[in-house]
């Protein structure tokens, strides 16, 4: 209940702006109502939202479980996701250099002790209208792409918004706000070799990516070791991303109905992962 208490929806849900069917998901407070009689108690609405987000229960199934209509399920889910997005968004998830050093696992200390963040991109499928901007031919559905970053300890320290799947890794770094993070001089970023971003990183920040093969047919022994070391550390960001994708609403394509809050769903899921046990124990 600690999370529920932190969110503080109010005894009767008076702190939540409830979305009204037929209104835009991003409606202003004038177009929504606060408080007032509810079919469910706020704590039950919270549980319903987590069932939808974490377990991927269909709206029609939740309507049956909670003895409410499907439109009411949709209204509750959209309202709570927006509410959680705003509340959790006030938490500063970018740790100081000092905290990063104090919690740095031995693997990073031994190999890349200046690491501040490990970044990667991931794709989320959606059933939005297929068009040339969104369609991913090799996956046969539309995709949305997000940049995320984790600390050496394995917590999300950057959660970028979702963009159309055709965006390049470099472009998403430029557009996501990642470059505006308060880096310290001497920090380094670990990424896959597709992130050719060394020239756009803030002054004093370096990039560690696997070496390119270049003109030679094979890597040097040093390059092989560097590739293996970076790969062994990058696996942690992949595990962090998988924790988000364990929220089963992302198991298949995201239906059109909640598409307007897909960024909120993505961000809330990642933020909730930060209150789980870290993926790196020491």
UniProtKB/TrEMBL annotation:
Domain Transposase Helix-turn-helix per the UniProt entry, residue ranges: 40-88
Chain coiled-coil ranges: none
The entry's keywords: Metal-binding
One Pfam assignment: HTH_Tnp_4
DDE Tnp4 domain segment(s): 120-274
Cofactor (UniProt): a divalent metal cation
Gene Ontology molecular function, alphabetical: metal ion binding
Keyword Metal-binding on entry: yes
Protein name: DDE Tnp4 domain-containing protein
Organism annotation: Acropora cervicornis (Staghorn coral)
């Amino acid at each position: 209940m600690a999370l529920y208490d932190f969110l503080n929806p109010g005894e009767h849900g008076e702190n939540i702006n409830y979305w009204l069917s037929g209104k835009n998901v991003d409606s202003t407070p004038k177009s929504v109502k606060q408080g007032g009689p509810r079919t469910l108690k706020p704590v039950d609405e919270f549980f319903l939202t987590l069932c939808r987000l974490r377990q991927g229960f269909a709206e029609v199934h939740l309507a049956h479980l909670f003895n409410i209509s499907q439109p009411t399920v949709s209204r509750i889910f959209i309202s709570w996701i927006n509410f959680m997005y705003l509340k959790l968004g006030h938490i500063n998830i970018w740790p100081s250099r000092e905290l990063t050093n104090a919690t740095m696992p031995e693997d990073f200390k031994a190999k890349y002790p200046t690491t501040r963040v490990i970044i990667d991109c991931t794709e989320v499928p959606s059933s939005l209208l297929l068009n040339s901007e969104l369609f991913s031919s090799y996956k046969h559905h539309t995709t949305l792409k997000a940049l995320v970053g984790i600390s050496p300890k394995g917590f999300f320290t950057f959660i970028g918004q979702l963009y159309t799947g055709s965006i390049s890794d470099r472009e998403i770094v430029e557009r996501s706000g990642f470059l505006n993070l308060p880096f310290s001089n001497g920090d380094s970023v670990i990424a896959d070799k597709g992130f050719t971003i060394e020239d756009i990183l803030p002054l004093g920040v370096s990039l560690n990516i696997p070496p390119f093969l270049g003109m030679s047919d094979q890597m040097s022994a040093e390059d092989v070791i560097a590739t293996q070391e970076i790969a062994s550390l990058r696996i942690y960001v992949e595990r962090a991303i998988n924790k988000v994708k364990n929220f089963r609403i992302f198991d298949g394509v995201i239906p059109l109905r909640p598409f307007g809050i897909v960024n909120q769903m993505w961000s809330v899921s990642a933020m909730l992962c930060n209150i789980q046990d870290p993926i790196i124990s020491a």
